[in-house]
Amino acid sequence: MANTEPAVVCSGLVRRYGERRALDGIDLTLGEGQTLVVFGPNGAGKTTLLRVLSTLLRPSEGDASLLGSDLRKEGWKVRSKIGFLGHQSLCYGDLTARENLRYHARLHGIGDAAARIEAVLEQTELSGRGDERVFGYSRGMLQRLAICRAVLHEPQLLLLDEPRSNLDPAAIEQVEPLIGAAVGRTRVIASHDPAGGLAEADLVLGLRNGAATLLAPAAQVTTEQIAELYR
Amino acid sequence: MSAPRPPSALSAARAVLYKELTLERRAPQTLTAMALFCASAFVIFHFALGRDEVEGALASGVLWVTLTLAALLGIGRSFVADREEGGLDGFLLAPAPRTALLIAKATTLLIFLLIVGVFASLLFSILLLGPTPNAAQWASLALLILLADLGIALVGTLIAGIAIQTRARDLITSILALPLLIPLLIAVTKASEPLLSVGGGTLAWRWLALLGLYDLIFGLLAYALFDYLVED
Q1: For B86, which of A88, A108, A116 is closest by C-beta distance?
Q2: Which of B5, B16, B93 sits opposite A109 (nearest CB)?
Q3: Of A10, A18, A20, B46, which residue has the fewest beta carbons closer than 10 angstroms?
Q4: What is the spatial distance between Cα A184 and Cα A1, in angstroms, rounded to a whole number?
Q5: Which residues of B touch A159 (CB under 8 A)?
Q6: Looking at the domain assignment, is residue B214 inside a domain?
Q7: How many domains are there within chain B?
Q8: Residue A191 — left, alpha, or beta (φ > 0 → left; ψ -120 to 50 → alpha)?
């Protein structure tokens, strides 16, 4: 664990979809370099929390700050510091992997992107197929490419929604240097894997119907407590 | 790697424009659909009107109704690739100014409309148009196509930006775009009428000025509103 400067602070965070409260008053503080793992059944609000933190959704109520910037007023400031990995790859099927990464590099203002692109493609073993159009990729390859895209600009904060889904054990090892704990980045991870998630967490958040039913340091949480969230 | 610096609106717009044109080059669906629609519409008009040739107000109406409806196809497809696999989110997550998306999308649509405008005008002159416009009239018609297409591209991008955030996006495009395009359609058909008449005529500058004003107003509106439309 690095230092304890707060990288993520949420205070009474609410997000509504119409009448439904997808996030219902979330309070949490996550230190820089720490990992928060969010557990909860489908529809509990994990993805919504990640999308709010990524600035893709505005909070309906409450406050959140990321890396010292207010999410409501200074969302533009934090975007260059966030790497977001959602359920979709955010890549275009009719572009090749290299073209997709070049496009995202230009949107992030990465000057000398070529070397970085080759490095991440090499790391995920996509280099050999980097000039193929993405629509022919398997789900696992697409997930690896999405991880390349999310870390391309070397963000300080990673927001990862089930990052290892669709990946085989070898691919999980390949992406560890990009999104694993050893990278030292602050991470917020949505997970359905109690044992795996708990192993890499510093802080655990359990969500049910948008509300936090569990928030504790990982050392004080058991896999049984996490499993209870799904019952 | 040197530290990334947020790109300027123009730099980001160039990136999006290059992506848009590459996607259309790889899978030329929008341009093909628009061109085929124009050709089919002219054939339908030929039989529906029961005439081999049209001129004047009728010619102007047939040409611009066809181009406007073909434009709706292009507007409807503006964000299709961005919806699949979340490309729009990819843009919104970047520290690029949102105006870049407006500039790139409107420019892409304008390019498509100009290509289809030239194709449709030539096809129209071969299949349906009675009088043969002279060089000056073709030049005036080209100016009208440019100004009208600029207006359609701006309104179309604005509407497509609204539609992308809704579930009824396919309906909303037509429902919102057509009423907003009525002033433009009136101005451009009136301005085209003398150019497509037997004996020929010159361009009515007041209609041209109206088109310019329409473009300016919707350009400013699009600039002011687009950020709010594409964000949550």
Answers
A1: A88
A2: B5
A3: A18
A4: 8
A5: none
A6: yes
A7: 1
A8: beta
In a domain, A186, yes or no: yes
Residue B138 · residue B57 · CB < 8 Å = no
Residues on B contacting A at a C-beta cutoff of 8 Å: 1-2, 4-7, 11-12, 14-16, 18-19, 22-23, 26-27, 81, 84-87, 89-96, 231-232
In the predicted model, what is the mean pLDDT of residues A191-206?
94
- For A79, the 3-state DSSP assignment is helix
**pLDDT at residue B83, as a whole number:** 86
ipTM of the complex as predicted: 0.93
Tens-place pLDDT, residues A110-128: 988 999 999 999 999 999 9
Q: What torsion do the CA atoms of A15, A17, A18, A19 make, to the nearest 10 degrees?
A: -60
A2 pLDDT higher than 50? no
Q: Encode pLDDT of B54-68 as tens digits.
A: 999 999 999 999 999
Number of domains in chain A: 1
* pLDDT at residue number B202: 81
CATH number of the domain bearing residue A225: 3.40.50.300
Q: What is the Cα–Cα distance from A101 to A144, expressed in whole angstroms?
A: 12
Tell me, yes or no, whether A124 lies in a domain.
no
Q: Return the pLDDT at A4.
A: 58
Q: Does A183 touch chain B (CB under 8 A)?
A: no
Distance from CA of B227 to the nearest CA of A (A): 12
A-chain residues near B95 (CB < 8 A): 76, 79-80, 107-109
For an interface test with A, which of B85, B101, B164, B229 has the most A Cβ atoms less than 10 Å from its Cβ? B85
Task: Mark yes or no for CB contact A95/B89 under 8 Å.
Answer: no
User: Do the Cβ atoms of A152 and A108 come closer than 8 Å?
Assistant: yes
Does a structural domain hold residue B19?
yes
Residue B188 domain-assigned (yes or no):
yes
Helix pair angle (A139-151, A97-107), 10° resolution: 30
Q: Which domain holds residue A16?
A: 6-90+155-229
Query: Which residue is closest to B27 within chain A, CA to CA?
Result: A94
Per the CB < 8 Å rule, is B93 touching A116?
Answer: no
CA-nearest residue to A57 within chain B is B232
